[in-house]
Amino acid sequence: MNRSILRAAASTTLAALALLFADGVRAQTGAAPDYAAIVAAPDRSDADRQTDQRRQPAKMLAFAGVKPGMTILDMEASAGYSTELLARTVGPTGKIYAQDSAAVIERFVKDKFDTRAQKPAMQNVVHVVRNYDDPIPPEVSNLDMITFFFAYHDITYMEVDRAAMNKKMFAALKPGGFLIIADHCAKPGEGVSVGKTLHRIEEATLKQEVEAAGFKLVAEGDFLHHAEDPRDIPVFKAPVPIDEFVLKYQKPQ
């Protein structure tokens, strides 16, 4: 075999090894998935696409830093809108625990989550029916992330020990794991007093409660803030977009 052929073969081999190395580096660095493509998946429902307009899911997933292979607990999953998006993002190598209490399922969700659970995208989801102040199954630990989307205010008017709930979430995360929490803004000074009437909570109050469990605030998202919201209207009756805060907490390493 002449030398030019050998050189060509060697170059081809080196190029292939370089590609393999590059793929390995991308895998190790955990490059962010294409969140917009996940949201645009053609098999998502029209109802979920309507919800997308106010929830900005691609921005939320990016802010949270959800990646393939993660194990995540989705608190108060309700009908599973966010659960499904999380499941699509973590993929078949990841797992989502979708939590809700039996009372809330019976009153508000009924068969909605079970219907959604039949979708292929939900095959990596485990439905967890447990009370909010003890939300994590005993065999579940070292979670990468916990999400709590637009529902913490609901907990404030239920018979729930929120301090115990927050401590359980903290304990279930791995060191360095994240809690992503978003909710509807109340006016300063209102605390939890309008949780049931307006479905809102004061951001400062929520921060105080969560941080008391040991969580450290690492980022705040402004992509759901709406200054035109007077914050004195029930969320489901507001004629303008709702002002909402998004917070990213971390369990210290």
From TrEMBL:
It comes from the Bacteria. One of its GO terms (biological process) is methylation. Residues 1-27 form the signal peptide. One of its GO terms (molecular function) is demethylmenaquinone methyltransferase activity. Its EC number is 2.1.1.163. The keyword Signal applies. It holds the Pfam family Ubie_methyltran. Keywords: Methyltransferase, Signal, Transferase, Ubiquinone. The keyword Iron does not apply. This is Ubiquinone/menaquinone biosynthesis C-methyltransferase UbiE.
